[in-house]
Design brief:
Elements: E1 2-11, E2 18-27, E3 35-46, H1 50-57, H2 64-86, E4 95-106, E5 111-115, H3 118-125, E6 128-131, H4 135-139, H5 149-155, E7 161-165, E8 168-174, E9 179-186, H6 188-195, H7 207-210, H8 216-223, H9 238-249, H10 257-282, E10 292-296, H11 303-313, E11 317-320, H12 323-342, H13 350-353, E12 363-366
Parallel strand pairs: 1-4, 4-6, 7-10, 10-11
Antiparallel strand pairs: 1-2, 2-3, 4-5, 6-12, 7-8, 8-9
Helix pairs in contact: 2-3, 6-9, 6-10, 8-10, 10-11
Length: about 375
């Protein structure tokens, strides 16, 4: 058997912080893809200080030199965060798997940019660091996203569907032949951006959104965005959210903040319900009445959003994950992707990204001290 102790790092588009997850994976043998057991031992979310939030939010507007310097500096910062986290753990860590922080994601041009240099991290940690998980899939004609179905297949295969409500909402649906997965819409990053109008970091439990009312014209405008008509595989970048979706909801003339938040939650639920029902119809799936959809990600703590989603996907039952899995699924996903890269096994699913073959994605930075 091969046991790997891995720390996964995820920096989400909502800029709420850096998620770290310490996981252990047991494979049947070295270089095997057969996962026998896994555990999420510990997770933590480290909020970004205001200066880092500001710098990362402004990153898309930087010139090449400025962006590359930020890439290196963020890598050192990530390395310091992981080093301090590892110091609190009772066990050893074999490798670190970092998603980095997405600045650009252009699936039509098959290119993506995640900053937070893995080499800089390895220099701080003196450990193996793996990053750049999306790039090879995109070079093979894929969209480089979504990555979450990897965790759904390996770790959560007993669910009919899995929904992750992070900065972007993505869903994976299990069919007899394969997983069908895709990005649905923006999620937490839109809600978080809106409540910043009143100085809040997020809408706790969706209470403010719940107090609002539906704005039919705003809902219709959002539903008319061309992305929603595209068939899978499809993925979204933060640029699409910032440039096409968020501005619709930032106009005070359309309604009060509570009404805009309410309408946005309704929009996400409606688009998810339509997308899931379209897959069921296209794939000719027969529901037994016992299907469940597991929800993870920060949006899983938004009770109002989850209530709307539960209604939209009925008769499929929405099931909340455990608090740790809800909070740290994406970081655990990165740990899994890193473990599979170390095993030299595919860690991006071409059936969901559209790539011409499976990719063993990830750049390995050998920071481990060599005798």
């Amino acid at each position: 058997m091969q046991k790997l102790s891995v720390v996964g790092l995820m920096s989400g588009s909502s800029l709420d912080g850096v998620d770290l997850a310490w996981c252990e994976f047991t494979f049947a043998a070295a270089h095997s893809a057969q996962l026998i057991n896994w555990q999420l031992h510990r997770g933590v979310t480290l909020p970004y200080p205001p200066n880092w939030q500001h710098r990362l939010r402004a990153a898309p507007e930087l010139n090449g030199r400025e962006l590359w310097l930020l890439h290196t500096e963020l890598g050192r910062y990530f390395g310091e965060l992981v080093r301090d986290f590892i110091a609190t753990l009772p066990g050893t860590v074999d490798l670190v798997a970092s998603h980095g922080h997405t600045v650009f994601h252009f699936p039509d041009q098959h290119t993506t940019t995640q900053i937070g240099d893995g080499a800089a991290m390895a220099g701080v940690l003196d450990k193996v660091v793996i990053d750049q998980f999306r790039a090879l899939d995109m070079a093979l004609g894929g969209q480089g996203a979504p990555l979450a179905p990897l965790a759904d297949q390996y770790l959560l295969a007993n669910y009919f569907a899995c929904l992750n409500l992070g900065g972007i909402a993505n869903v994976s649906i299990q069919t007899p032949k394969e997983y069908i997965a895709f990005d649905v819409s923006g999620a937490n990053q839109v809600l978080d951006a809106l409540v910043q109008e009143i100085g809040l970091p997020y809408d706790d439990n969706g209470q403010f959104a719940r107090s609002g009312s539906l704005l039919p014209d705003l809902l219709a405008a959002a539903n008319a965005l061309p992305f929603y008509q595209l068939p899978p595989p499809k993925s979204l970048g933060n640029d699409w959210v910032r440039e096409q979706l968020l501005p619709l909801f930032q106009q005070p003339s359309t309604g009060s903040l509570a009404d805009r938040l309410h309408t946005y939650c309704f929009h996400v639920a409606e688009q998810l319900g339509l997308a899931v029902k379209k897959v069921i119809a296209t794939e000719k799936l027969t529901l037994t009445g016992h299907e469940t959809m597991l929800v993870t990600g920060g949006g899983g703590f938004n009770a109002f959003q989850c209530e709307l989603i539960a209604r939209a996907i009925a008769p499929i039952r929405l099931e909340p994950a455990t608090p740790d899995l809800t909070a740290y699924k994406e970081a655990a996903l990165m740990a899994l992707a890193g473990a599979l890269r170390w095993q030299e096994q595919p860690n991006v699913l071409p059936t969901v990204t559209g790539a011409r073959r499976a990719a063993v994605g990830g750049a390995v930075h050998w920071g481990r001290v060599v005798d």
